[in-house]
Design goal:
This protein is an all-beta fold. 0% of the residues lie in helices and 60% in strands. It has strands at 5-10, 15-22, 29-35, 41-48, 53-60.
Length: 62
């Protein structure tokens, strides 16, 4: 399971700070496929690892 985190803080009525963290715990995303030929259950079919990404920004309203 992949966890994401998002924060937004209104500093003034015209300025907001934004923080987004994707894949907080650096999990690998795995897809599974059911194998009913040999009744082995679910087998991994693909895995992707994107790492953790962090975005920080400011929003200014005029």
């Amino acid at each position: 399971m992949k966890w994401d985190l998002s924060f937004k803080q209104e500093v003034t009525s015209h300025i907001a700070l934004i923080l987004n963290v994707d894949n907080l715990f650096n999990r690998t995303e795995t897809r599974y496929r059911y194998n009913n030929v040999f009744d082995w259950g679910y087998l991994p079919s693909a895995a992707s690892s994107y790492g953790t990404t962090i975005d920080f920004g400011a929003r200014v309203s005029l």
